[in-house]
Amino acid sequence: MTHKVKAWQNVTTFPLPGRQEKPRKEGLTMVMDKGLGLNATRDLLETAAPYIDFIKLGFGTSALVNEDLLRDKIRLVRSYNIDIYPGGTFLEVASIQGRTGEYLAYAKEIGFTCLEVSDGTIRMDWETRASLIAAAREYGFDIITEVGKKDPRDQIPTREIIEQVKADLACGASRVILEGRETGKGIGLFGPDGSVKHDELSEILAYIEDISAIIWEAPLKSQQQELIIRCGPNVNLGNIAPTEILALESLRVGLRGDTLRFALQPK
Amino acid sequence: MTHKVKAWQNVTTFPLPGRQEKPRKEGLTMVMDKGLGLNATRDLLETAAPYIDFIKLGFGTSALVNEDLLRDKIRLVRSYNIDIYPGGTFLEVASIQGRTGEYLAYAKEIGFTCLEVSDGTIRMDWETRASLIAAAREYGFDIITEVGKKDPRDQIPTREIIEQVKADLACGASRVILEGRETGKGIGLFGPDGSVKHDELSEILAYIEDISAIIWEAPLKSQQQELIIRCGPNVNLGNIAPTEILALESLRVGLRGDTLRFALQPK
Amino acid sequence: MTHKVKAWQNVTTFPLPGRQEKPRKEGLTMVMDKGLGLNATRDLLETAAPYIDFIKLGFGTSALVNEDLLRDKIRLVRSYNIDIYPGGTFLEVASIQGRTGEYLAYAKEIGFTCLEVSDGTIRMDWETRASLIAAAREYGFDIITEVGKKDPRDQIPTREIIEQVKADLACGASRVILEGRETGKGIGLFGPDGSVKHDELSEILAYIEDISAIIWEAPLKSQQQELIIRCGPNVNLGNIAPTEILALESLRVGLRGDTLRFALQPK
């Protein structure tokens, strides 16, 4: 499937320069899909495929959908060369039930290309995590790990987050997602109102060498805007609602007020 | 229409056990539909029909849609054996205009299977309510009444709510909805920030014998989560957005962090 | 395309009378479209075309979509006699890049029927604005200007807003939009929580003679409700989400609790 976006390109240039096109190694966008049907999935791909790198079927939703439909949807997404994977919570469930082998085999057979390894809800010791990453890589999955706890009562100090990011990458993960949940509020890098905690952000940026290995879950526009202004248009962003993909891409290239204003400032 | 969800069932079991499948008498989910077109309705049904028991066409929206389209949509929803009904406000309007006879006849003819009898906005004395329920039952409708006022200035004491629930059931209603509106904030059981009022909830749970007769309008995830943890996976929930049906079902079965955490706690 | 809504019209009358039907000069509704695909666009038009006067392709999203798809979408919207235009920020970008000529030519060629002239993010002197309006009118576009700044730090005194509205109309604009952004919070007429600033609203209503020339960006239901109660069912409203068009129309005609309550009050 090709997607030519030549329309306006003889008219204007993007105010924020440098946005990478596919195939790209940074500037990734991950969609949080909570159950799009085939009509909506087609709409999403036809309008926005060049701006989507991963589609995550949130939580355990892929366990609830008709199997034939799930196969059709995975095939459709794959026809656009976009990676697709089930939510990490689902693998956490398989892990505590001692069924990771069956889980990996089935995920492979049904067509998923990526897997998220997380401990957002369960406790998982480091050896289990490492062996899970290794086992999933054996199956040929691209591995994205997630660092962070879903419950506000369990939050991890920034220094530990940094350590775990490094350990995961050393262990074979391609990328590490920083937990932001669907709301982006009172979780990880974000205060109760969704505002970015600047000290924590600076600490992570200072201590992680290759920032392109991180995918920031940033569901709110204010968060996306701040990360783009801070890290540039090719920051990796996740948990983006399907309805927000073009709006986010407008932010990335400076075709929306908030980042256009930034692009116009004297540097 | 059948909908086999066998995909993952050899892989894991649901962390929160006991979720009832269709046909079921409790664990009902009611969707708040504000005007889905046929493509979106098909998507919703294909992905989530096993998790939907009622579709409510919110407010007076069904009065605004092209008649042929409305008939097609009702037929489509009915082909999945899902009940469908117009918002209660619409019948309130017919009632104050002295047109309930015409309303009931037309609702029947066009294919609705349920009716909501409410006084969320108008004043309706008990005799009128009772005779409206009786008249609608004559037409063969399944009757859901709603208890609660839409305006924060008109809120009803919990004890009165309980009395009205009992009276409605005695009078022929199959279920009673507790008003939560579309926002779930500053209304009925919910504080201005959407938090559940625990005392009021406990009072209702203590005094209503058959809790499966109640449908809780709970549009926010935090509310759904709290009601599931408190009342179990088969609590009846309403005013769920179409985009949230699979997310809610994930909550019900423990495939989402918030209820998975609960399922894993030592009891 | 015709859209007969006769279904319920023999049953009830609308509690808030006077709503104008198409073709109409006031009571306009403008949809904020952030990237609907063709399936969703068809759904929107089939369910709600009689209640939509303009579709705005928000921000620079129309620059990001495949050109063939964009042409198909514009053609589809036009087949319902609904006006369609790209977001104002996009023309601001062309303006600062000295490419307004190319922009106007391309917008015309691709099928847009309206243009929004704004300075929500850039600085534009009055002569530039006036000549831009004139140039766009030369191309046959219907001109909607926008007054207001997107950044909370740049807000304009109400008296200046009024002056600019008058100047724009004198200069050839058909309508003037008052900036409310997508959120409706902390911008223009709206406080940080989205509440309407009554003094500012009263001042605008007092000093603008023909209030039908104004389109109020009012994305939140509470704002729509307040403007309908204050200005009547035929107030022009903009930045309405596609999912909210029938809900808004229910508000306009009194088929939703909030305005039904108002309609029933003794006057």
Structure overview:
- 3 copies of one chain form a homotrimer.
- By secondary structure, chain A is α/β, with parallel strands linked by helices.
- Helices cover 40% and strands 13% of the residues of chain A.
- Chain A has 10 helices and 8 strands.
- Chain A has helices at residues 38-48, 67-78, 88-96, 100-110, 126-138, 158-170, 198-207, 221-231, 245-253, 257-264, and strands spanning 29-33, 54-57, 83-86, 114-117, 142-147, 175-178, 214-217, 237-240.
- In chain A, strand 6, helix 7 and strand 7 form a beta-alpha-beta unit.
- Chain A starts with 28 loop residues before the first strand and ends with a helix.
- The mean pLDDT of chain A is 94.
- The A-B interface holds A 34-40, 58-70, 89-90, 92-94, 96-97, 99, 102-103, 106, 110, 120-122, 150-151 and B 3-13, 15, 39-40, 42-44, 46-48, 50-51, 243-247, 249-250, 253-258, 260-261, 264.
Note the main attributes of this structure.
homotrimer, 267 residues, alpha/beta, 8 strands
